[in-house]
Amino acid sequence: MIQKLLIANRGEIACRIIRTAREMGIATVAVYSDADAKALHVRSADEAVHIGPSPAAESYLVGEKIIAAAKQTGAEAIHPGYGFLSENAEFAEAVQNEGLIWVGAPPSSIRAMGLKDAAKKLMREAGVPVTPGYDGDDQSPERLKQEADAIGYPVLIKAVAGGGGKGMRKVDAEGDFLSSLESCRREAKASFGNDDVILEKWITSPRHIEVQVFGDSHGNVVHLFERDCSLQRRHQKVIEEAPAPGMDEATREEICAAAVRAAKAVNYEGAGTIEFIADASEGLRADRIFFMEMNTRLQVEHPVTEEITGVDLVEWQLRVAAGEPIPKKQDELSINGHAIEARLYAEDPAKGFLPSTGRLNFLSLHAGTGRVETGVEQGDEVSPYYDPMIAKLVVHAEDRGLAIDGLLAKLANINVYPVRSNAGFLYLAASDNDFRSANLETGFIERKGDNLLPPSKPTAKALREALTTLRWNVGEYEDHPWHGGLIGLRLNASPKESALVLADGEAVEVSVGDWSGADLRIDEPSGMALVNEAGQTYAITPWRVQGGTATAADGAILAPMPGKVIAVDVAEGDSVTAGQRLMVLEAMKMEHALTAPFDGTVTDLAASTGGQVQVDAVLCVVEPAQ
Fold first, then answer.
1. What is the tens place of the pLDDT at every residue in 235-282?
2. What angle do CA 279, 282, 285 make, to 5 degrees?
3. Residues 123-131+208-336, CATH architecture
4. Which of 10, 297, 319, 420 is catalytic?
5. What is the per-residue pLDDT across 502-525, written as a single tens digit (0 to 9) for each?
6. Fewer C-beta neighbours within 10 Å, C or N terminus of the chain?
7. Residues in contact with 217: Cβ distance below 8 Å, sequence separation at least 6, in sequence order
8. What is 136-201's CATH number?
9. Per-residue model confidence as pLDDT tens digits over 585-624
10. CATH 3.30.1490.20 in the chain, residue ranges
11. In terms of Cα–Cα distance, which of 316, 332, 322, 255 is closest to 289?
12. Are 61 and 36 within 8 A, CB to CB?
């Protein structure tokens, strides 16, 4: 068995691997960048090695530094987690060439499944059903558009080397194809260094069904049943569950057998996932489930499979990497109950789910039953350099209904502040009637739209409770701002918009206009109440009424987060219409289009292509049309 393991990753997956390794008596080595010097995975490991500056391209993605850290510390094996170098065949080979154990898929398997076009051809040969589409060598825009027209719209453009929803575009009409292709290729080139694409027919009622497979060096391959990952936003999974609701035994047997054939076709070893797209317009049927791709690594959502099978997949990975056979045979594996996982992200649903960074002054995750996988604690920082996941919340119960109830109870007791989170959005999604009745498809979140966005303020009842708590806390301090006839509040919003005052024991919203032009300025608070309603955290802070005025430049286009300007579509003096794209900002490997808030004229253009900008920087101003 391995004696010392280096984990070539960070955050919650590094902490997850450390936990299992410690239970197995394996010493662990963490690696970290400048931004992660005080991170939880660094504090949790037995040793830690600094590998470079904060950007992943200069640290976590530099294989030579990671291998050097392993040799420096005497680690015998490297576990890549997921993301970063986990599906990099060259890195896997380099690890093995240095005499180290690679806790992952064989490089040949990674290569075979790494490009979606080659993988689809291989799967066809193995008798695995694939989605209709085009995966040819001719990558000219003219040929791709010709094939898309022949397939029929809507059509899906997918980067051959893509993953995580990047390098993927749905095209609804012929006239949008070429612009979508250009955007998709640009994102794919930036993320994966390869802008080749394939085309697939868009399934009108799609469900994302995937099968966990596991192989060893002795020729054994088993499946650990399926997961449903249909709740997605921008092709990123949000809520996952196992088993898939509505899956009958005959269909389960067919797709799981197809997944095993797929793994055997590439002589697979270790943990992997075969992803399928199901046309669920008439329920789940074996003849309407098609291969999409294989992820040759451990998946983010692996805990739901662990919960229903009682298996520790990381332990299996370490044992198989050390040369042992898979610990269980297929007939020893069975489904027990139902598990559901929600991904809690540091992002602001009210601002288009833009990542939210900063210090987690308040963080409470562990209320209720279930499992929490996290890489942060209260007081830690959410960095702008990496994926903004805070935690994975996992609940296992006897059946799906009870599992959903457990997840809702967990979300209802979460507090995250001042960093924004998607907890309220998760609560509304999981409590939706269609979700509870398993009326699922990958367009669920888009279809529900603003109905899944939490309110901007808590209910009057919650406010009264918070105000009572705050007044109680300040006790007899007569000079505290809670005392007096009229007291204002700020609810995570600009005080120039509205305030809440305590009048006759009731919380009442008062508009700025009612103050005869008086501005509200913050007073030094001595206390704060965090109110959680339906998963959303609201912070209530005391305010005083002060003199002064304030104005807001409604036409100012601000950078929503630090990033790089990759396209500027307007020039100073241009006339623009409401909703027109002004520029594109790339941040955290995603493109964000900034648009005109109303008809007007562009002035004070400060952004240029290739420029780096900071959060809230004024990029330009749109003067309203007269």
1. 889 999 999 999 999 999 999 999 999 999 999 999 999 999 999 988
2. 65
3. 2-Layer Sandwich (3.30)
4. 297
5. 322 334 343 433 333 222 222 233
6. C
7. 269, 320, 323
8. 3.30.1490.20
9. 886 566 778 888 889 999 989 999 998 887 667 899 999 8
10. 136-201
11. 255
12. no
Six-digit token string for 336: 């027990």
For the domain bounded by 556-624, which CATH number is listed? 2.40.50.100
Q: Where in the chain is the domain with CATH 2.40.50.100?
A: 556-624
d(CA 413, CA 435): 21
Per-residue tokens: 588: 């955290």
Which pTM was predicted? Answer: 0.76
List of residues 6+ apart from 23 with CB closer than 8 A = 315
**Residues near 624 by Cβ (< 8 Å), separated by ≥ 6?**
554, 555, 598, 599, 600
Q: Where do you find CATH 3.30.470.20 in the chain?
A: 123-131+208-336, 344-448
Amino acid identity of 583? M
In this structure, what is the dihedral angle of CA atoms 50, 615, 540, 411, given to the nearest 10 degrees?
-60
CATH topology of domain 4-103: Rossmann fold (3.40.50)
Residues 6+ apart with CB under 8 A from 433: none
Token pair recorded at residue 502: 């305590």
**Three-state SS at 262:** helix
Q: Is the pLDDT of residue 112 over 70?
A: yes
- Placement of tokens 């332990």 in the chain: 315
Concerning whether 297 is annotated as a catalytic residue, the answer is yes
| Residue 587, CB-side half-sphere exposure with 13 Å CA sphere | 24
CB 325 within 8 A of CB 216: yes
In the numeric block, the tokens 């498809």 are attached to 441
- What superfamily in CATH does domain 344-448 come from? ATP-grasp fold, B domain (3.30.470.20)
